[in-house]
Amino acid sequence: MPEQWRDDELLAELAMALRDADEVPPEFVELGKAMFAWRDIDGELAALMYDSEYDGDRAGALRRDESAPLRALTFSSAELTFELEIIPDAVLGQVVPCQVLNVHVRVLSGEDVVVTTDDVGCFTIRPIPAGPFSLHCRTETGTRIATNWINI
């Protein structure tokens, strides 16, 4: 025979379940604030074109169980491509076509770290951001470009 609930017990359980459902995880709040901080509709989004962690399976199946010593990512827009390699202690990057520009590394808290590319478009981000980050820059022609959030 099923356990019988008293009305007050049932209402208390339902209230607790609804209260838990209404709570928003803090990382979602931080992500929302960070996304709002960059709301430039004139900017161009550099889409993820390649991630070595995935086999190219459009469903996103992982290629292998063991971790690769190097992860490569490519983000591309009409005007600029970010090529990234993640090594144990840094993110190595290059912008193509090569140009000298400031790359803003934005983390969820909204803080920016600025790195400048060299003559061949290379840059290094050290240390690797602890959480999700995105890259933002303004090209020589004045176009603003940003990547999606990158989670290592």
Can you offer a commentary on this structure?
With 152 residues, the protein is an alpha+beta fold. It contains 2 helices and 9 strands. Strands 6-5-8-9-1-2-3-4-7 form a 9-stranded mixed β-sheet, with no helix packed on it. Strand 8 and strand 9 form a beta hairpin. The longest helix has 16 residues. It is elongated. The N and C termini lie far apart (51 Å). About 5% of the residues have low confidence.
Number of strands: 9
Mean pLDDT: 82
Structural category: alpha+beta
Relative strand content: 25-35%
Uncertain stretches of 5 or more adjacent residues? 58-64
Query: Could you state the order of secondary-structure elements as H and E?
Result: HHEEEEEEEEE
Shape: elongated
Discrete helix count: 2
- Strand line-up across the major sheet: 6-5-8-9-1-2-3-4-7
Largest sheet: 9 strands, mixed
Radius of gyration: 21 Å
Q: What is the CA-CA span between the terminal residues?
A: 51 Å
* Share of residues in helices: 10-25%
